[in-house]
Write a structure and sequence with these properties.
- With 131 residues, the protein is of the alpha+beta class.
- It has one domain (18-130): 3-Layer(aba) Sandwich (Glutaredoxin).
- It is built from 5 helices and 4 strands, in the order ααβαβαββα.
- Strands 2-1-3-4 form a 4-stranded mixed beta sheet, with helices on both faces.
- It is globular, with a radius of gyration of 16 Å.
Length: 131
């Protein structure tokens, strides 16, 4: 019985769907579906980045709060050029950057450092209502 329960738990963990796309996929979805593009820039060695992804971002994705945005998570170590361009050289990690289109131009908003759910909700709500 214990082995059956363990196999069910392991199957649910390993079959978990990804919560985010790579940058190119998220950007394309954002443009095609007219959704804000939310990019989380972090690094695996950054404790605040891991807590942000494992708590705030994961729980918001699971409850559907991120359905109205296209989400990409960028590892600064794996793609330093893209991360530097997105963060505009700001070194603080993590960063949540939200882009919206306004008359063909991209508008940029961001949050620096670890964020609980409420500031992320506010960031998304403002982007959706103000473009």
């Amino acid at each position: 019985m214990v082995s059956f329960l363990l196999s069910v738990v392991l199957a649910s963990v390993t079959s978990e769907t990804p919560q985010h796309k790579n940058y190119a996929e998220a950007y394309a979805e954002s443009v095609n579906q007219h959704k804000p593009l939310m990019v989380v820039v972090g690094a695996p060695w950054c404790p605040a980045c891991n807590v942000l992804k494992d708590t705030t971002i994961r729980s918001m994705a699971e409850t559907g709060e991120l359905d109205e945005v296209s989400l990409a998570v960028i590892n600064k170590d794996d793609d330093p050029e893209l991360a530097d361009k997105l963060t505009e050289g700001e070194k603080m990690l993590p960063q949540i950057i939200l882009y919206t289109q306004d008359n063909g131009r991209w508008k940029r908003r961001r949050l620096l450092g670890f964020q609980p759910k409420q500031p992320v909700r506010t960031l998304i709500r403002r982007a959706l209502t103000n473009g």
